From TrEMBL:
InterPro entries named among the record's database cross-references: Homeodomain-like_sf (IPR009057), HTH-type_TetR-like_transc_reg (IPR050109), HTH_TetR (IPR001647), KstR2_TetR_C (IPR041490), Tet_transcr_reg_TetR-rel_C_sf (IPR036271)
Domain HTH tetR-type span(s) in chain numbering: 15-75
Keyword Transcription: yes
Protein name from the UniProt record: TetR/AcrR family transcriptional regulator
Pfam family, one: TetR_C_24
PROSITE patterns on file: HTH_TETR_2
Keyword Cell cycle: no
Coiled-coil region list: none
PANTHER family: HTH-TYPE TRANSCRIPTIONAL REGULATOR BETI, HTH-TYPE TRANSCRIPTIONAL REGULATOR RUTR
Alphabetically ordered keywords of this record: DNA-binding, Transcription, Transcription regulation
Lineage: Bacteria, Bacillati, Actinomycetota, Actinomycetes, Pseudonocardiales
Amino acid sequence: MQGNAGQRNRRGRPGYDLGRLLDVSVQVFIERGYEGTSMEDLSHRLGISKSAIYHHVAGKDELLRLSVNRALDALFAVVEEEASTTGKAIDRLEHVVRRSVEVLVEDLPFVTLLLRVRGNTRIERQALARRREFDRIVSDLVRQAEAEGSIRPDVDPALTSRLLFGMVNSIIEWYRPGRGVRAGQVADAVTKIAFDGLRNGVAEPVE
């Protein structure tokens, strides 16, 4: 889900197509901060000239745009999946949370960068606007679940949405690929912890 990336998928030096360029650029942005990263820094990390980078993109801002849009496009694909399904709102909400965890794990560097933008540039402000739209969709699902009686009535919908994705987003701080924990395992744990507490079920009698 690289947005407009495919339109510029030209090759320069062997081994450095646009996909590889984005992978490395995202890592440098995370380490140094977007504003603290220069094209010279990217050139050194990649081991190619700045002109080779410009073969693929117009500049650093385009690298940022393509990177955050990769994460955003993947998240919005999740809510598009939800919009095409029927069933109880609580089940659709759980699907969105589960798939969002999987997106985060699968595209960890790109989602990490997205969560660290602060709105200091036009591209960052556009990314934040799309994040707010995603949050609004999730909050609406929480309200629907509350209206149908599936969520405990003593939990505020807006707060519930923030807490759910606070849990999801915290994964970027501790999850490390290659340590034996798969995306599905993380998604199972998050949804069990979150939705066992949210669902408005009637406790089974103790015999």
